[in-house]
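Why Sulfate transport system permease protein CysT? Reviewers of the renewal asked for a concrete example.
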Amino acid sequence: MTTAPAKAGWRFRQPSVIPGFGLTLGFSLAYLTLIILIPLSGLIWRSAALGWADFWAIATDRRTINALEISFGTAFIAAMVNVVFGTIVAWVLVRYSFPGRRIVDAMVDLPFALPTAVAGIALTTLYAPNGWLGSLLAPLGIKVAYTPLGIVIALIFIGLPFVVRTVQPIMEEIDKEVEEVAATLGANRFQTIARVLLPGLAPAIVTGFALAFARGVGEYGSVIFIAGNLPYKSEIAPLLIVIRLEEYNYAAATAIAAIMLALSFVMLLVINLVQTWSRKRYG
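Here is what the prediction returned.
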């Protein structure tokens, strides 16, 4: 007579042949506490010391709201543009062989290595009214530098590698035979992309969007040169925080930073929920 095996209960950790769980967990928690939790806790504590009335007055100030709208709005637009063109760039680098392919592949990482201030100065030089590209756009009535459009272009520049490098490895794992099978079954090119390729790439695309968006929201160095920094027009929230610090108004600076933190957390939480849903749906 055999007895049924005991039903395994919930465990804090699964058995592993690799030792050192307690040590590595303790180090991870201590590291996250020192680097992330303590600074964020200090920010929240300093903001809470304001009182609800003062905090609400800073949060509802028209200049603060406008700066937050510009920061989050331009970051969202730039991330959406990078999703489209970053996926196309990754597709070209994976699916086609052409002269200079390795050079193009290396150039994708240029925004990672280039100081953000240098990127901002270079973009301003190009898109200023007397710049190479700005002088061509000016007769058409298109002004890029010192406008929110310039901010979007700067954020596209610094966010493109996040999408390309996130999508590219996943795309390399998709065999070309999958596309050929879809074609033999009667699918046209659009159907192959929409029903065969994109479902498998969706989690990576969402991840790339989240990374590009998060980088764009907090970007400072490459934006201040091309934005113009005009209040109510092209002033970003990180710059407004710096202005408040220079005015020794630390309470307003921490309040704006706390608002940015809360909005970023909510938006990234929504993105992660969408990413989890896409993984469950498409695998």
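The domain at 51-282 is CATH 1.10.3720.10 (MetI-like fold). This is the kind of structural detail the renewal will allow us to pursue systematically.
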